Structure formats: structure tokens, C-alpha cells
Input
Amino acid sequence: MFGLIGHLTSLTEAQSVARELGFQEYADQGLDFWCYAPPLTVDDKIEVTSVTGQKIEGVYLESCFLPEMLAKGRIKAATRKVINAMAQAQKKGIHITALGGFSSIVFENFDLKKITKIRDIKLEFERFTTGNTHTAYIICQQVEKAAQKIGISLSQATVAVFGATGDIGSAVCRWLSSRTEVSELLLIARDRDRLNTLQEDLGRGKILSLKEALPQADILVGVASMPKGVEIETAELKKPCLIIDGGYPKNLATKINQEAKGKEDVYVINGGIVEHSLDIQWNIMEAVNMDRPARQLFACFAESMLLEFEKIYTNFSWGRNRITVEKMEQIGRFSRKHGFQPLLAFVDIANQNESGKNNGVSVEAETVVG
Ligand code: NDP
Output
């Protein structure tokens, strides 16, 4: 059995999803309530069928973590959400569980590996994976395939990675440096020492601020861990420009200035999202506004499904900045074998509504050959 530990992107979204899913007692409550709420098993009968015919079952656990908890200094609540959800997953006997979105960031940033026991449960960390290897692989596929689609040649392209020193960002940089021949790599984050180390490890890359990078980038990858995204002026972007926004909550895509309306030369893709070839019986992805909720999901969640299909019961992605290109290739092979494809649909930014849902999808996800 696989497990998914998820969370929503804001209190407002959480209240509305709780209402939609029939958890009325959560829907009417403010941040204080969410800080004390225990994890919820939202779906315990997820069934996924591989294109090989193999079937697996899984569980979705809502940790009740909200990014506002970090923004408002409710650190203890944030850490309790993650660790309690992990304990619950383990109690259910789940073989491998993905720590979605901020769950793994909270785990790492607050060094939760120090907590080895919750009540009577001794945590076995090998039962968990961050899902970041698959996420990084899928983002790289999105860069390569979408660039080709809109006529950006990677060998002449400048690619900016916002959140470059992070777990996913550094893996994306490694891939782009060794498996593609991008002309220039722009490295964006706040901590200068970590940026210098990354630059040394890669043997390339220019360290810039987001503002400096925007007018230079043909492709902008957003993988910064920000509780709230930043607004960028589309007028500042190079044209054409491809934006792959892999942040959860979004780093950039939903904040694109309305000037973008009608400008077809700014292409935005929801990063780190995969589309499965067969329907999955669940309602979770509808709640988070996926365009095709029966087929589309976060690549980190898909990683735990892939590990369950392959019966690899170990924390495939763990720790920080340890993702190798070889492991990205390995998870990529599993991903293709079981029928997952990177999402290549462009967000219709002209009609994007306030919730961030894409109203118009112009291009279907493509099958990756190989
Ligand atoms: P990490 O914490 O490992 O890395 C975050 C990176 O963002 C670091 O480089 C950090 O560097 C940078 N950063 C954070 N805040 C800022 C800021 N204000 N300005 C500039 N840079 C910033 O995170 P992960 O790599 O694990 O995750 C990255 C994002 O991907 C998150 O939003 C996460 O939720 C999302 N995600 C998406 C998944 C999917 O399936 N689509 C799966 C898993 C995660 P510094 O602190 O020095 O600025």
C-alpha cells in the first residue's frame, strides 16, 4: 500500500475544500483550529492501475498543515502536523508514503528526524520519501519538451532556476548541466554561501536576483519554498518566455500580471505535475483544482505509487541535495513504464481565475518516448 501526505496552500483554500469534501467542522474554523486539528484520512481506498495492468492501493492523509503556520510563526503546530501524519501513515501499515509539498520542507528545516517516537510508534523513516527525485525529473522533462514545442533551442537558451539551491532546484540544475546543453544557467536563491557551493559543484552558473534574471531568461523554473508567491511583471520578461512553476503554493504562475492578457509569447506550465494514462478513482485532485483530476497529480505523490509498483520500500528521496541524475533517470524509467507523463498543457493566463485554476488547456500532456 502507498500513502500520500498532503496539505492545502492557504487557510481560505483549506476551508473551501473542507466544505466541498463534507468536513463542515473544519470548514468554518480559523487558523487556531487548524493548528490543533489532527491529521485526517480523506481517502483510504485509492486504486491505481499501471499501463502494465498491475494494480495498487493507497491512502491519502491530509496533515492539516497550512503555509500560514510558517508565515505566522506557528512552528510547533507546523512540525506537529507533519510528524503526526507520518505516525498515522505508519500505524496504518503503509509501505511507502510521500511527504507532499511543504511536508518534507518542514521535516528538513526543523530537523524532525530527531523525533523518533510519537506516542507508542517508533518512526521508521525508510517508509517515507519526499518524492523530490520524480518531481525534479518531471520538471526537467517539462523544460525539454515544452521548449521544443514553442521553438526555444536549449543549446541557445538561458534557464533561470528560482530556488536553485533547494532539493528540487539543485537536482534540476544538475540535470540541465549534464543531460542537456543549456547555454546559460542562472541561479537564484537568498543564501549566498549555498549559491556559491552549488556554483562550484556545477562548475557553472551565474548567481543573480530574480529581478536581474527575469529579462535574461528564456526559461524560468520556479521551485522556491515560499508560503506565498511573488508577482512578476510580464513586461519584464524576454519574449518568448517559458515559465515552469513547480512551487506549491505557486511561486509565480498565479501572480502573473494581468498585462499578460492576450500575450501569447509568455507560456506557463504547472510544474512537477504528471498525467496518468488511466483514471484514478479519487476526488483529492479535484479539490486542488487539477484540470483533469482523475488523471493529473503531483509528481511527488506519483513517486510513492511508482515505488509501490516496483516494491521498492525505502526512502528513495531523502535528505537535502542528494538527488543524483542517475536516480532521476531511474525514477523516470519507472514513470514511463507505469504510464505517467509530464504535464505539458499551457496555463491560459488570460482567463486564469483567482483560485489559480487553469480554465483553458491548449495542449494535452504528451507521451515521453524512451
Ligand atoms: P527546499 O526547501 O529544499 O528549497 C527551497 C529553495 O527555495 C532554496 O533554494 C531556497 O534558498 C529558495 N527560497 C526559499 N525562499 C526564497 C525566497 N523568498 N526567494 C528566493 N529563494 C527562496 O524545497 P524543495 O526543493 O523541497 O521544494 C521546492 C518547492 O517545490 C516548494 O514550493 C514545494 O512545495 C514544491 N514541491 C512540489 C512538488 C510537486 O510534486 N509538484 C513536490 C514537492 C515539492 P534560500 O533559502 O537560500 O533562499
